[in-house]
Structures are given as structure tokens and as C-alpha cells.
Amino acid sequence: xxxxxxxxxxxxxxxxxxxxxxxxxxxxxxxxxxxxxxxxxxxxxxxxxxxxxxxxxxxxxxxxxxxxxxxxxxxxxxxxxxxxxxxxxxxxxxxxxxxxxxxxxxxxxxxxxxxxxxxxxxxxxxxxxxxxxxxxxxxxxxxxxxxxxxxxxxxxxxxxxxxxxxxxxxxxxxxxxxxxxxxxxxxxxxxxxxxxxxxxxxxxxxxxxxxxxxxxxxxxxxxxxxxxxxxxxxxxxxxxxxxxxxxxxxxxxxxxxxxxxxxxxxxxxxxxxxxxxxxxxxxxxxxxxxxxxxxxxxxxxxxxxxxxxxxxxxxxxxxxxxxxxxx
Length: 327
Description:
Blueprint: E1 2-6, H1 11-22, E2 26-31, E3 46-49, H2 55-62, E4 69-72, H3 79-84, H4 86-106, E5 111-117, H5 141-160, E6 163-169, E7 171-173, H6 191-199, E8 206-209, E9 221-226, H7 227-238, E10 246-250, E11 255-257, H8 258-269, E12 275-278, E13 287-288, H9 293-299, H10 308-321
Parallel strand pairs: 1-2, 1-4, 2-3, 4-5, 5-6, 6-10, 7-9, 8-12, 9-13
Antiparallel strand pairs: 9-11
Helix pairs in contact: 1-7, 2-4, 4-5, 6-8, 6-10, 8-10
């Protein structure tokens, strides 16, 4: 099969590219490298430095070629930034997805897997674990922008028969267990790599945003899913959309608090983590845990790196071998 991957130089996108290659598929990557890294794209992969705001550039890659499907990862993804710059997120995430979807329709591509988010479920009145049928109530412009794209895809299916899989995944974490790819955001905002760098003495005291949530230890609880397990979910999902569209939550099904993540990093690394409390961030719900029953039932998907210690172990190996990331 030949697949197009947008954002294939980013964290989840690059791991999905590896999963596709491991399965014997041909991959073409589009990325503007605003947050991704060219070093994360295997040299065997055809790469195009394209911004999805440029519809002509997208068409130049897609047109006159046969495609078996598209994986769309490219997006702005920082919740806190979206609370400060909501219009930036609505403009960029919506328009880039719109351009891609329209180009797919114009070129008779009928399968697209979309990188959605658990940030759709931002309401405080929900019950965890969260299922696909729970109330959609984004708690941030980032989450809202993703839901807007889901609605485009809903109508693209009904009217143009572009079948899609919207994967609402929770906290992607970890790294390829063979060391081929890892997490390298600039600036880094994710808890596990920040905690690891603190344990390794590479950054100042870790700030823990919110210690007064109504949880078992006062810190946020999140569902961490290993990035390679997440990549595998994408491959399984695209096989489900030959004649229909689907929506799946993708998570580990178990929540870990921020303090429990710190404890895991200390266990795995053998080092103490220096941390201090900080005010809550806007848009952060107290608990986000996934019910992935539908994905498991339809596809047989299971996690290979289910425990927080296994996730942290792969992330730690990556950070130790790549202290400067992909540089």
C-alpha cells in the first residue's frame, strides 16, 4: 500500500511512519517542519517540505498518483497556548485540515485517519473512563478546533464518501523501543520528558501545575498510551474504513496522576526528581481516562507497553541517548 502521512516528522506521526514501514508499506511524508524534525523521517521515505496552508503544494504531491489512504497528524497541539491564542488554533488547525480533505476528495482518495484528541471531553461533569458516546464539551480552543475537523469529516463521508477514522487519543508518551524515534518538542511541554530531564539534571526544578485537584493525591490524572501502541492503533483503524467511518478513543484505560509519574521516573531512573507546585493551567481537566473498548472489540488492538514504568523506560532510553533531541 502507498500512504500519505502529514506531520510525519512529528512525535506520533514519525512513530506511525515506522509502523507503516515495518508492515511493508510505502510512505510519503508531508511536513512543514515547524515542530517536526527531518531527522525523524527515515531516509528511505519520500519527504516533501509542504505547509498544508498551501493547497496548491498539497495538490502537487497528491495529484496523478494512486493512494491507499492518508494519515493526518499535522496540527498545533498545545492546550495552554490555545487558551492564549485561540484564533491561531482555529485558523491553522481548521484550514490545514480543510485543504487536505478537499484535496483528497478532488483526487478520489477515500480513506483518511485523523489524529483527534481527548481534549474534546473537557467538561467537568463527565464520568471516567470516557467512551466515544460521552458528551463532547471541549475545554480549550485546541480541543474545539479538533472537533470542528471531525465535523468536516462527518459531512465529507455523508456527501463525498470519504471514509474516516477519528482517533481521540489521550496522552501519547514513550519512544520507539528500538531507539529509532522519540519525543523532541521545542519547547517541551509534556510531563514525562520534562520529569526525565529533571531527574537527569538537565533542567531546573520541575513545576507541577495544580496540586489541589479533586483526585487521590491532588494532581491531575491522565491516561498515558505508548506512542508505538498508538501508531499500531492507526494501522488497525484504517482497515476498518473500507466502507464506513469510525470514531475511537485510544488510551491505556488506566490513569496515572502527575505525582505517580514522578514516582515512576524516580523508580526507573534511580534518581530523585526535584519539583515544586505551580498554579493550575487553564483548560486542564482534573481527570482524563479512556475507554478503548470499541477499538479493542473492532480491531483486536491491545497495548504492548501498558504500565507507566514501561512507558517511562523507553522514554528514558531515548533521552539518555539523545540529550539534545534530534540535533
